[in-house]
Amino acid sequence: MGMSITMFLDGQNFDYETRRVMGVAFEMTRTALRFADRHDLVVAVIASKIIELAKAGERNPDLLCERTLNDLRQPPPQVKR
After folding, report:
1. Distance (Å, whole) CA 43 – CA 75
2. Each residue's pLDDT tens digit, 2-40
3. Spatial CB neighbours of 5, under 8 Å, sequence gap ≥ 6
4. Contact indicator for 26, 60 with CB cutoff of 8 Å
5. Which helix (H) or strand (E) holds 51?
6. pTM reported for the whole predicted model
């Protein structure tokens, strides 16, 4: 069974439809990354990114998933020494 994004909302209020769309995007992203059975920091990062995008106004689950995947695929910033 899937994991709900609700546990990552940390008291943030979204209407029912937005929560539903975020949940769909969350499951799509986890499935695309083959993290459907994981319950760790990576899953929390996925949820955080979807929530951030939804706060910015995105309501399309396909775009939420795509933008989250694109963000996760970016190499980490280089640390200057």
Report:
1. 18
2. 678 999 999 899 999 999 999 999 999 999 999 878 888
3. 19, 22, 23, 26, 47, 50, 51
4. no
5. helix 41-55
6. 0.86
